[in-house]
Design goal:
This is Sirohydrochlorin chelatase. GO terms for molecular function: lyase activity; metal ion binding. InterPro entries: CbiX-like, Sirohydro_Cobaltochel/CbiX. There is one protein chain. With 241 residues, this protein is of the alpha/beta class. The chain has 2 domains: 116 residues, Rossmann fold (3-Layer(aba) Sandwich), CATH 3.40.50; 117 residues, Rossmann fold (3-Layer(aba) Sandwich), CATH 3.40.50.1400. Helices cover 48% and strands 19% of the residues. It has 8 helices and 10 strands. The strands form 3 sheets. The protein has a 4-stranded parallel beta sheet, sandwiched between helices. Strands 7-5-9-10 form a 4-stranded parallel beta sheet, sandwiched between helices. Helix 7 links the parallel strand 9 and strand 10. It starts with a strand and ends with a helix.
Length: 241
């Protein structure tokens, strides 16, 4: 049996790690295994520390599920480096699973949030962290289009950072002009400073544009079944990296 290790980017936000812990615990209950949360930066433990904790719990193997929506710098550079370091330092048989990604299962989670949270006449702003990687940004635009088809709503992608015609709070304000109702839907695993920056500005943006705003919370435990699915696929396929 493999332990589950989730690997987040990490955040300076006071509540971010608690959200990752909740997600990790929910996925572990589904899988019936022990689980530890790990982080690339800002929070502890790192992946080596989390792998040691799994070993101390009696596990000789573990699946690492990156809590990342895109295959940009963190997924292609930071995660492999942390994975190699943890495997070398601990001797635990680690399997690197696919990250969260932006596939049909993520679209389903987001569409369910729209149905539950957004007023029926509201257009949706999909709000990811963002990336400077143009290919990854293009895939997020495609995610917005898929969400629009699944939810029957107009969806505009406004990343918090990175590339695009609309970025950050100015991008949210631009998207809200000439619309009566808008709903901000975060593509965030957990709380974050960038998300706080957006939600705290919604009152001002509402006054500036006349659009009425609502917003969802980060996804947190809505992602637990997806994390469990990534774990199962990695174990079944025996993908060793």
């Amino acid at each position: 049996m493999h332990a589950l290790i989730t690997l987040s980017h990490g955040s300076r936000h006071d509540s971010a790690q608690r959200g990752v812990e909740r997600l990790t615990a929910a996925a572990a209950i589904t899988l019936g295994v022990e689980a530890v949360d790990a982080h690339l930066e800002f929070n502890a433990p790192d992946l080596t520390g989390a792998t040691r904790a799994a070993a101390e719990a009696g596990y000789t193997a573990a699946v690492v599920v990156p809590l990342l929506f895109t295959r940009a710098f963190h997924a292609t550079k930071d995660v492999p480096a942390a994975f190699a370091a943890a495997r070398e330092a601990t001797g635990v048989d680690l399997v690197l699973a696919d990250g969260l990604g932006q596939g049909a299962d993520i679209v389903e989670v987001l569409a369910r949030r729209v149905l539950l949270d957004a007023p029926s006449d509201a257009s949706v702003i999909l709000y990811p962290v963002g990336t400077s990687n143009q290919e990854a940004a293009t895939k997020t635009e495609a995610l917005g289009q898929a969400l629009s088809q699944a939810s029957g709503r107009e969806v505009t992608v406004v990343p918090a950072t990175g590339v695009g015609d609309r970025v950050g709070n100015p991008g949210i304000e631009n998207a809200a002009r000439e619309r009566e109702r808008m709903h901000l839907l975060p593509l965030f695993v957990t709380d974050g400073l960038l998300l706080d920056r957006a939600t705290r500005a919604l009152g001002r943006i509402q006054d500036a544009t006349g659009a009425m705003f609502t917003h969802s919370a980060p996804l947190i435990t809505d992602l637990s079944d997806i994390v469990a699915a990534r774990y199962r696929a990695a174990v079944t396929q025996g993908v060793l990296t």
